[in-house]
Design a protein that fits this description.
membrane; lipoprotein; receptor; transmembrane helix; Rhopdopsin 7-helix transmembrane proteins; 389 residues; mainly alpha; GPCR_Rhodpsn
Length: 389
């Protein structure tokens, strides 16, 4: 994830280190005081808000009983990955940016830093991918998809995500595709083979899966919309419903016939109510996943396009791509870690309510209030549904 940190001002002689062969040297870009204040303020705010938002997600799910469900394990994993980016990666990038691109933390820690950066960002991206698959299967196969109700299986999915993310960091640490760790430069390996492997596993494959899942959920929601387009308008059998309701107030002439008609109508209403619930769930899933995929693509696609093209265009030269462009695209990708908890809080009423209570330090009886709010929403939905008919 971490790109070159220097702009070519004073080219140095080629270095003789075989494992770190590069044109990079102690080249920097000097910022003025005003630029440092503006840049430092903006990226510090991004970092602090990322820490706050993702911490709220983890605390909410861990402390609120209603949210401690297997289906939320992936949300916690995503928040943990984004929180790790904010705590273990962003502070060092802030310092490096403010000193103009010089790496100040030594050669050994450079490898550790790159490994943390790659693993945490990849875990965040791959968790988003798994969430999209989970949402799709939960909507289209509610009876045959048991993972969301099985905590052990969901935990295994989270473990696999982090294992795959860690695997991308191993090649530079064990001999293949060494990172560039010369004096005051910390640059991820520019080996062409490793670049294709890492960007493919970390971004292009997960993004393709997310787009396919969104397309399928969108198609399911669109089909449901056509099916339920006139659900709120009178239909030919509505008159029978009125007769059935009237029979509960005035005794009908034919009791046996009336009971039979009302039993049939009751069964129909239950099936219709079930279909409407599925339709609403599909619409919400399509809308939420669409925003997640769209935001993710806007944040990370420019950076990964640059990262993929760089070894072919620049080789190991650090000044090939302007420093301001590298840093802008990198921080645009990091911003996705800030946006993720905001999206889930906006579309998840329980998370939104929990956030609000935690921010107001209103911890007492939060589980009871959430249960009461859910009951109230369920009653309102039932009354609204019954009012339609």
């Amino acid at each position: 994830m971490t790109e070159g940190l220097s702009q070519v001002n004073e080219p140095r002689a080629a270095l003789s280190n075989a494992t770190n062969s590069t044109d990079c040297g102690e080249d920097t870009v000097l910022y003025g005081d005003t630029e440092k204040v503006v840049i430092g303020t903006v990226i510090s705010i991004i970092t602090l808000l990322t820490i706050a938002g993702n911490s709220l997600v983890v605390i909410s799910v861990c402390t609120v009983k209603k949210l401690r469900q297997p289906s939320n394990y992936l949300v916690v994993s995503l928040a943990a990955a984004d929180l790790s980016v904010a705590l273990a990666v962003m502070p060092f990038v802030i310092i490096t940016d403010l000193v103009g691109g010089k790496w100040l933390f030594g050669e050994v820690f450079c490898n550790v830093f790159i490994a943390m950066d790659v693993m945490c960002c990849t875990a965040s991206i791959m968790t988003l991918c798994v969430i999209s698959v989970d949402r799709y299967l939960g909507i289209t196969r509610p009876l045959t998809y048991p993972v969301r109700q099985d905590g052990k299986l969901m935990a295994k999915m989270v473990f696999v995500v982090w294992l795959l993310s860690a695997s991308i960091t191993l090649p530079p640490l064990f001999g293949w595709a060494k990172n560039v760790t010369v004096d005051r430069v910390c640059l991820i390996s520019q080996d062409v083979g490793y670049t294709i492997y890492s960007t493919g596993v970390a971004f292009y494959i997960p993004t393709t899966v997310m787009l396919v899942m969104y397309h399928r959920i969108y198609k399911a929601a669109k089909a449901s919309a056509r099916k339920h387009r006139f659900v709120d308008f009178p239909r030919p059998h509505d008159q029978d419903r009125i007769v059935c309701v009237d029979s509960a107030v005035r005794p009908p002439r034919s009791t046996k016939r009336s009971h039979k008609e009302c039993a049939t109508l009751s069964k129909f209403l239950q099936e219709d109510h079930k279909n409407i619930s599925i339709f609403k769930r599909e619409q919400k899933a399509a809308r939420t996943l669409g925003i997640i995929v769209g935001t993710f693509t806007v944040c990370w696609l420019p950076f990964f396009l640059m990262s993929t093209a760089r070894p072919f265009l620049c080789g190991s030269r650090c000044g090939c791509i302007p420093l301001w462009l590298e840093r802008t695209l990198l921080w645009l990708g990091y911003t996705n870690s800030l946006i993720n908890p905001l999206i889930y809080a906006f579309f998840n009423r329980d998370l939104r309510t929990t956030f609000w209570n935690l921010l107001r330090c209103n911890y007492r009886n939060i589980n009871r209030r959430l249960s009461a709010a859910s009951m109230h929403e369920a009653l309102k939905a039932t009354e609204k549904h019954e009012g339609v008919f």
